[in-house]
Amino acid sequence: xxxxxxxxxxxxxxxxxxxxxxxxxxxxxxxxxxxxxxxxxxxxxxxxxxxxxxxxxxxxxxxxxxxxxxxxxxxxxxxxxxxxxxxxxxxxxxxxxxxxxxxxxxxxxxxxxxxxxxxxxxxxxxxxxxxxxxxxxxxxxxxxxxxxxxxxxxxxxxxxxxxxxxxxxxxxxxxxxxxxxxxxxxxxxxxxxxxxxxxxxxxxxxxxxxxxxxxxxxxxxxxxxxxxxxxxxxxxxxxxxxxxxxxxxxxxxxxxxxxxxxxxxxxxxxxxxxxxxxxxxxxxxxxxxxxxxxxxxxxxxxxxxxxxxxxxxxxxxxxxxxxxxxxxxxxxxxxxxxxxxxxxxxxxxxxxxxxxxxxxxxxxxxxxxxxxxxxxxxxxxxxxxxxxxxxxxxxxxxxxxxxxxxxxxxxxxxxxxxxxxxxxxxxxxxxxxxxxxxxxxxxxxxxxxxxxxxxxxxxxxxxxxxxxxxxxxxxxxxxxxxxxxxxxxxxxxxxxxxxxxxxxxxxxxxxxxxxxxxxxxxxxxxxxxxxxxxxxxxxxxxxxxxxxxxxxxxxxxxxxxxxxxxxxxxxxxxxxxxxxxxxxxxxxxxxxxxxxxxxxxxxxxxxxxxxxxxxxxxxxxxxxxxxxxxxxxxxxxxxxxxxxxxxxxxxxxxxxxxxxxxxxxxxxxxxxxxxxxxxxxxxxxxxxxxxxxxxxxxxxxxxxxxxxxxxxxxxxxxxxxxxxxxxxxxxxxxxxxxxxxxxxxxxxxxxxxxxxxxxxxxxxxxxxxxxxxxxxxxxxxxxxxxxxxxxxxxxxxxxxxxxxxxxxxxxxxxxxxxxxxxxxxxxxxxxxxxxxxxxxxxxxxxxxxxxxxxxxxxxxxxxxxxxxxxxxxxxxxxxxxxxx
Length: 884
Hints:
Helices cover 55% and strands 9% of the residues. The chain has 884 residues and is α/β, with parallel strands linked by helices. Among the domains are: 165 residues, Tetratricopeptide repeat domain (Serine Threonine Protein Phosphatase 5, Tetratricopeptide repeat, Alpha Horseshoe), CATH 1.25.40.10; 217 residues, 3-Layer(aba) Sandwich (Rossmann fold). The strands form four sheets. The chain has a six-stranded mixed beta sheet with strand order 7-6-8-12-15-16, sandwiched between helices. Strands 3-2-1-4-5 form a five-stranded mixed beta sheet. It is globular and about 90 Å long. This is Tetratricopeptide repeat-containing protein.
């Protein structure tokens, strides 16, 4: 009897393999009467296999039927056969969804199969799980750009293969690992995976040919062109020798021909030869993958463009479009036709460049816009931050091309719509991830079951991250648990579809400009490779557009030399600073100066995000009296935003309505320098702020800080802070008992109206292409705080308390926080008691205002007159400077 049972299980596995391989095509539709009979007799195994064996007209129909089976099952599986049948159902569902193009749902189905296998590990066939669950699941994550998850799955697959002692399976898994590492930009690691797999693979096998192809890809990206050509030639030779009945090997050969064409693109004749070899392969010899057929047509189109044959290019591109958007004229596509697919993105952009070369700018610009919609739709399928950042970075050159065409069209026609197009492209190119994070923060406040589950998983992730940090990442089990929670979070967020709409009607620059206040203007920038584009607008619309050369190295040197390296260069060579600051002003602002009496909302981009704009000099004539220097801060009020859309969200962000909480930690934990100016800062602020809650040293605990963030309208922080630039594992604010990690902000249910980060480099951090500076200010804004004051470099312990005192005093009488901060700086520069040296920008320009200028208003203190008594005697600063 046992032998019969094993035979039945084996037979069912064979049927499964046939179904998954696409060869299982002769089964009849499920007989409703038979299904009813199986159910009446409680024969769940037979009932499930009736669904699995059903031959639907399309993969999508098959997937829908299998999903229906999981929903209609009258009970959960109990016996070994039932458990196996349920797994087979999930695997076939994942395969059918993949074939239909629904990769996200396919991933969910394979993930369910994986979880089911884990729950029933004692009866799950490791070989079956390896080949038909882990392999497609990992590859799906790679397709979705969730590379960390893909690596996680592939590594599990490698362990399965090792346990089975299956050298060929190990080699194949190394190929998957190599592909994923290459997609993550880890090219050296990809090469190592290829070489480890090559050691295990049979040198005559198709897997060995695939590994050589992966190796050629990494070598090409590392610009090892000779090695890449040698590897791809050897790969093709091995794959050509595979048996004719191996469709997978034929498909790999089809891809290798295309890869060879890419490697030889500098030799168009040879490249065309390889592409044509791919074209010549009969579809019957390889598994039919229309997506890769489309990619080949796209490659041929690009090759024709490189040969300056745009009309021929369009023929190939139309053939590609015929596969990706069948029945549609690519020139007449709308946003509703677009979906997340990199080949579609590339097709739209390439076709746009062709029409640009044919001097049809309207068609080209529309196709550029559609390509960006495809890029956003594709990115929304990603979960890992690194994959999203890579997608944003990858789009920058495309945006510059599109903006350049819109600019030239504006110059040629003077049609205002092209200015609006420039602004639209600028907006779409910047801070997209911050916008998504801000939306997620708003959406996660829901109280339904899914949102509660989301918050529970987020709290679990915070717990495991903190535990891992406190154990110095020494506990592998904690890391594994954190990975598992991240995986569950990724799946839930996909189901909730939290993200940005790709409907172009959802973003109107004109509508957002209408939200500006009278007297408020924006300046938006796009920093290209060597060109800077600028748009200024107000409530009435766009005022001007400008294009100018961009000297990135001059900006980088200016910030590093005069600010990040400390005040010495500015103190020792004030004239050199003056001249450098004026040169940058002349380049960036002289053609269109900021107008007095206006509040300017600057939306910098790229290297401009690091520039201390208020510290620039607006006139060329040098004087030794530093207080008299024509700083830009004297010209107009300046605040910052990451983009128009993030700024608009900040105008409507729900926040705590009232209350002030200040955290002042001068006595630091062992290993950290005490902060001498912090106690003075608290002493100066107390008479200015009415009804504040004050936490000093031991009182400034992590618990009190979290409570303040959820209850107070304004939270002031004066302590040590550490960013990614400090080479630490996780950015954090140091409190009296423990660090507060920035990722903990996601666990808050309420947020302050304004956070004041009176600590070093809280406005500085990692500069991410297309996103701006990933600073502490960025983290607070992403979590839901609409306004932040932060420092771009080390704040001075002697000057910061006085500037903060002035800021809060001004805030108690002003309705604009940016104006309050500007006036505090102007008062500093006018104060005769401040030494001339300390009027250098290093001492006052570090603090900047970001976000909603009217988010928080400080009520005037009943004792607001008392602050006058605390003004210090004339200030004398000596050689020692306390920095925090």
